[in-house]
Amino acid sequence: MVVNPALPVRSVAEFIAYTKANPGKVNMASPGTGTSVHMAGEMFKLMTGANMTHVPYRGGAPATADLISGQVQVMFDVLPGRNPVYPAGSIRALAVTTLTRADALPNLPNHRGDSSRL
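and the corresponding structure tokens:
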């Protein structure tokens, strides 16, 4: 789960609270309707009550470009695509959506906010 750094949140809990306090102001990018990235965002919305609008793109590159530029505020990107694509400081990673931490991002909490290795 990555956000544009202009969004005033530093954790998943802060993100959820922000979306609820600012309905209609958070846009969620995906590389297309029905993709795993889109479905991860929709599942997040269902599980948390987060208020986000889905913005489908024709692929990951334009979605990523708009996330970096601030046209959209959040994306549930796939891990292999995340590391080399984003220039340093252009996005803020909040968490991984897996049950355990990702070895590639050991300092990033998992979806439950667990700060320990499982």
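(Above: one complete record from the training split.) The mean pLDDT is 84.
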